[in-house]
């Protein structure tokens, strides 16, 4: 068997019709084993626990869609893993299952070895193999803005060039409009502010009380033994307004029930989305599934700076996680588009920042996402994107429209 030493104290053994992932010592345990002609791959319980695979100790090959290998700028390493079918992905909260990593600062040294090992694994299992070639400028589709506020059409690809990110301290908690990014024991939490929650409850109570008053006045007026009010349609108008307010209350309650919280768990190296009220987990993404953090901004109003200060610009903003693979919402089967690789985790109606004069290089990339260094973050939304990207160990990008 040919042996390949990989990161995290592991080794890969490849032989005729067999592929093994084991602990890299002479008597190391075999953690994952694939044999040509077998209908399932087998693995040890500890591997199943770490990778959140079925506890039975084997996974049918028909539940493995493809073997994927690619270089990640986040940890500057090659990653080899499996893309799982939805029947397996939904219970574990993600399709990506990492098998092995190769440290490679430039992404140009270990590529052929990774390609060979990945191709042999795919041939052993009889599934497709996809090799993502690293590039100085890999393609990146334009981030989608919320449908409620259409944005101008932009180019479908942009230059992305991973660079060494300088360290810059950004104070937490960080308020971004109605959102807040705060540190927790296991990492970071992105959630609505207390002001937003209190305001939403206040609007619910106010509209409910007002709706009850309008309905009560309308009913009492229609049942009154005294002379009818003039004009005669006023009681019915009161009933209509009252019902409209009650419907508005139900809409606010539904919105409150669907409010999400995003947790960046550094211990488990995953990002979790869950409901704020019930804490029900909606989805889980391994750090390896996330390609970048993208902030989309649309300039709405510009205010001239005073005493030599830069102009101030009011922006509408969206915060996205860009995944390596387009995301399929559970229970919503449909044809995936490149835009579905963007997971929107926050909409900021208004955020303010300095109107810095762009460099010639930035002008060339106008209206397409570009790499954003920490020192370039001038708005709360941009700073939140930088902090999240540093926690997930990926790059942050600005999509200025």
Could you characterize the architecture of this molecule?
There is one protein chain. The protein folds into two domains: 2-132, PH-domain like (Roll); 136-401, no CATH class. It is elongated and about 100 Å long. The protein has a six-stranded antiparallel β-sheet. Strands 11-12-13-14-15-16 form a six-stranded antiparallel β-sheet. It is α+β, with helices and mostly antiparallel strands and 401 residues long. It has seven helices and 21 strands. The protein starts with a strand and ends with a strand. It has helices at 45-51, 86-92, 111-125, 194-223, 234-257, 360-364, 380-392, and strands at residues 2-6, 10-15, 18-23, 30-35, 40-43, 58-60, 64-72, 77-84, 96-103, 128-132, 174-176, 179-184, 187-192, 260-265, 270-275, 281-286, 290-303, 312-323, 342-354, 370-371, 395-400. Helix 4 (194-223) runs antiparallel to helix 5 (234-257). The relative contact order is 0.12.
